[in-house]
Design a protein that fits this description.
2 domains, FAD/NAD(P)-binding domain, five-stranded parallel sheet, single chain, alpha/beta, 509 residues, eight-stranded mixed sheet, globular
Length: 509
Amino acid sequence: MPPETLTTTPGPGSGPAEPERVDVLIVGAGISGIGAAHHLQERCPGKTYAILEAREAIGGTWDLFRYPGIRSDSDMHTLGYRFRPWTAAKSIADGESILEYVRDTAREAGIDRHVRFGHRVARASWSSEEARWTVTAERADGSEARFSCAFLMMCSGYYRYDQGYTPEFAGIEDFEGRVIHPQHWPEEPEYAGRRVVVIGSGATAVTLVPAMAKDAAHVTMLQRSPTYIVSVPGEDPIAEALRKVLPARAVYPIVRWKNVAIQSLIYRLSRTRPRLVKKLIRKGVVNALPAGYDVDTHFKPPYNPWDQRLCLVPDSDLFRALSDGSADIVTDRIDRFTTRGIRLESGRELEADVVVTATGLNLLFLGGTKLDIDGVEPEQSHLLTYKGMMLGDVPNLAFTIGYTNASWTLKADLVAEYMCRLLNHMDAEGYDVCMPHLSDPSVSEEPILDFSSGYVVRAVADLPKQGSKEPWKLRQNYAVDLRALRWGALEDGAMTFSRRVAAPRKVAA
């Protein structure tokens, strides 16, 4: 296992401390960062590494979000790591179980000993002379720590942890009840026996409504427009049947590939035969709700399936809450908040004691880290992504952003595997620098995400772009990425390799 190193702090009156030196620096101790460290230990055992984590605990998203009912929005056989089978019965797992899974992974592999908590990365500066990154992190006490690494792995997710998205609501200051954003859930929300309005129709809203309906007097999901919602079994019956006759390590890849195939099929059908998919989804909703329910008002989106992410509900929990009357859906626009609740454009007023603004995320590429290369800061929106995991003309840096149409970890595992292949190839050939470079003038720029969800639309102009051709094209396709990242050629004409050329030493006269 790579040796542990310690950060040094300058003493009074001294100059800046020398940065802590590691081979690989991983930013983020969530599901991606812990997975990347595991792959690194296993495939590149001679490499030293450290993980910088802004928070005080391992878990990322699953440590941050604490709202009622938080769970995975995809099955755990694909959200789980490839190298560590998910063995629990629940396929759609609660947040606490996922957090325990990630932390157990870190502890069992000794990865937790490499995490520097309370270190928020602010800047990463590349030196061509040294062929290394110098990374500056801000500690919770306001001091700074510096790290030097040959390769930088950004596993910081894609949204702002300190601030969720909330639109400007007229009159919100007049509301006498409590307003809560799910990203900042209080320890004592005090909603039992009270009237709750959840604003939103995405994954967070459809999770909150049935969970809060168990204790609240009543919960209303207030949506501006509907979302496609599909009920799935909370436990995978095929996985449970196979576990009775096969060991867990044999069952896991079978079920994983079965679920990958189903996800891919649904996505392809949504793109090629959207009317058929709409019909099937609507049929499922009609069957899950009481006869005569106004399905077309509340469950008929104005877009095609997978123009935005489908929402999964385990064992029809949302539909059951709507059926038993503990919750309802209102499809309308907000005019303004009042002292007692929310007045809608239709003139109706929803009375509420608690309003939950499940209105989305703010995207933040690379966790907001400022990059500079030999003192020059590249314009983020002008960068081109390579294989959906590196940036054109940015050396020795990779990032992890999962799929929009499948589980996050499917892509995270592939990115970490590719990173290890790349590092081992560089060692074998004596290279110090790897950098994607576009030399094909026929490649044009395209938005990095072809997705109409609000959080994407708000940020896409400021994000890096993708190219119109491979390997600059971002494929939302696990099978295609599997071929390109696990088995594809490293020297593909776009990836350049070089050796460090240090500046000549000055000779004293």
